[in-house]
Design brief:
With 199 residues, the chain is an all-alpha fold. The chain folds into 2 domains: 111 residues, Helix Hairpins; 40 residues, no CATH class. The chain is 80% helix and 0% strand. The longest helix is centred in the last third of the chain and has 68 residues. The N and C termini lie far apart (76 Å). It is found in: Membrane.
Length: 199
């Protein structure tokens, strides 16, 4: 049964190769993976660094910012629970980066408005800069792949044109030689050759 599923995947890959635009899209994405890899590494480093900061400053283990009755508010406690470990902080930051919303952090923003400013800087850098760079890398690689495919198609077209020209030249030469071969022996004399070349 699993073998049949694998065969379906192979059929799907064959289908991708048969459809030109889909094939160029797949090639463009494959070529863009190298550039995307470095953008993703940078994104991971940024998320990791920011997650360490937010875990230390906002997480429940930190009482540096959160003291008194405001720290006991259920919404703030719930927000602080999101930043218990660096891993959970990274996930929350990634989620806020990809969901286009910082509204879940409003209770913390009310308590400390400076955190709102830091969140806006993070949001602008993560969403607008890094995601735009990633989109640009993918677009540029896909355009380069399409141009490369177009050049290959043009090169193949040039070979076909050259092949047709050679075929026409061959048939023209065969016709000339058949006219010069007056006795039909398949060879021509020296005089017939000179007459063919000079006139």
């Amino acid at each position: 049964m699993q073998m049949l599923r694998l065969l379906r995947i192979v059929r799907l890959i064959r289908l991708v190769k048969m459809i030109g635009p889909l094939y160029s899209l797949a090639l463009g994405i494959a070529e863009a993976m190298q550039g995307m890899f470095w953008v993703l590494i940078f994104l991971f480093m940024m998320l990791y660094t920011t997650a360490i900061f937010t875990t230390r400053m906002i997480g429940p283990g930190s009482d540096l910012l959160f003291e008194g009755e405001a720290a006991q508010d259920s919404d703030i406690v719930e927000n602080r629970e999101m930043f218990t470990t660096v891993g959970s902080s990274m996930f929350v930051l990634f989620e806020s980066m990809s969901c286009w919303s910082l509204m879940q952090f409003v209770p913390i923003f009310r308590l400390y408005p400076v955190i709102r400013l830091l969140a806006v800087f993070f949001y602008i850098f993560a969403n607008w800069c890094l995601l735009a760079v990633m989109t640009g890398v993918v677009s540029e690689k896909m355009l380069a792949t399409r141009e490369k495919m177009r050049q290959e198609e043009t090169g193949t077209g040039n070979l076909e044109i050259a092949g047709e020209a050679l075929a026409q030249l061959g048939s023209a030469l065969a016709e000339l030689f058949s006219k010069a071969d007056s006795d039909g022996s398949g060879s021509i004399s020296r005089e017939a050759w000179l007459q063919l070349v000079l006139f």
